[in-house]
Amino acid sequence: MIESVPLKNRCFDGMSLSPIKPGPHTVPLNLIGPDLQVKWNRFFSFDQNKIVLQRHDWQIDSFLIKMLWCDISQSLKLRRWKNINLTFDFSQCPKLSKRVLQSLGFQLHKNMSKSKFKKLTFYFYENDSITSHGLKTLGRYVNQSIGKSPKISLGFIRACTVTDKSLETLAINISKNFLNLYRLIIRVHRTYRVSDQGLERFISICGKNLRKLQHFAIRFSECQKITNEGCQYLGKTLSLYYKNLHHLSIDFRRVNKFHVSMISDKGLEELGYYVSQYLKQLKQISLNFANQNQVSEKGLENLAFKVIESCPQLDQFRLNFSYCNQMTNIGLKALEEKIKDHLPNVKQLSLDFSGCYGITEGGLNSLRQALTFVPQFNLYC
Q1: How far apart, in Å, are the Cα atoms of 52 and each of 26, 43, 360?
Q2: How much of the chain, in percent, has pLDDT values that exceed 70?
Q3: Is 378 helix (H, G, I), strand (E, B) or coil?
Q4: Nearest of 185, 252, 265, 187 to residue 225 by alpha carbon
Q5: Cβ proximity of 344 and 354 under 8 Å
Q6: CA 376: distance to chain centroid?
């Protein structure tokens, strides 16, 4: 099934390649088992097999945590669900306190039996209370309540106030308190205070300690001090500590200063070398270098082609080079041949070349026709 999606409808969720339709915060259950997502806002309600969420900015306290948990527990008893995927989204709550996390951890430990957990996910808007005592307390309760091999995920949404030092502190706290972490998502957006060295310190500290990590998503969009050197640091650190990764997402979109791209073909060459040589167990990969005016077809070849050639077992592959104006039909044709030759079993494929003025409708039509063997193919144009 091939689907061409207009640019205005483009929407993705983290590591997943499946497009999500824009709309109200309604989270349905998946086909495998129950998925409960509690997105912290003022109201929430259970509606059959889903939670309907409405956005507000109430202060969260321990009493509200307790009341929420009563509703969750009652709903689970009525439905008799097992192997639950439970998500708490605090990404809209910059003033979350350590007492709230302590209360949440206590309620998890008290109310949820080990047999019911399949995955447990937390999303935070990172602040000082989260990086210190809050994470320590939550981690202790969570590790006690769900056994020795939980699939725990942490996501951190960081604002423009983040620095290299605070990023390092966050990495230390994650490493100390969540040794069994299954998935880690770090998103830093629109800042000039995070440099290549801060990126390198964060991923190296986490890599040395989080030996069970299988999903890693790194998003440093619109960060003015991330350069080719950062790509090199990232590649080297991934090759040293992350060889067992199954899912990798790298997002360096709009990394530029005064409208000049800080990442070029050279940075992509360094990153492509290390990923292709050392991360042989990847099953899903997402690469986003949108709005990089110094990236050409040479960068596409050095990164994407090497990954495709070295990881034939990939079942999900996402590539975003939108608004990279040096891309042409020649690079698109070469990409088409690489996918046909090296990814015959890929199940989900997403390619985004929107805004690339060197790519014509003829080149896109040729790509659509050549990749009809892919069960789920999304081409953004």
Answers
A1: 5, 9, 42
A2: 68
A3: strand
A4: 252
A5: no
A6: 20
pLDDT digits (tens, 9 = 90+) for 203-231: 999 999 998 899 999 999 888 889 999 99
Domain segments of the chain as ranges: 2-279
For residue 77, what are the contacts with CB-CB under 8 A and spacing of at least 6? none
Contacts of 103 (CB under 8 A, 6+ apart): 62, 65, 66
CATH 3.80.10.10 fits 2-279, yes or no: yes
Question: What are the Cα distances from residue 312, in Å, to 285, 317, 339, 344?
Answer: 12, 11, 9, 8
Residue pair 267/230 in contact (Cβ under 8 Å)? The answer is yes
How far apart, in whole angstroms, are the C-alpha atoms of residue 271 and residue 198?
17
What are the structure tokens assigned to 90, written together? 């605090």
Report pTM: 0.81
Instruction: Specify the amino acid at residue 165.
Output: K
Expressed in angstroms, the distance from the first to the final Cα of the chain is 17
* pLDDT confidence bin for 259, thresholds 50/70/90: low
Three-state DSSP string of 224-260: EECCHHHHHHHHHHHHHHCCCCCEEEEECCCCEECCE
Residue 12, Cβ neighbours under 10 Å: how many?
18
User: Which amino acid is residue 352, in one-letter code?
Assistant: D
**Span 172-185, pLDDT tens digits:** 888 888 888 889 99
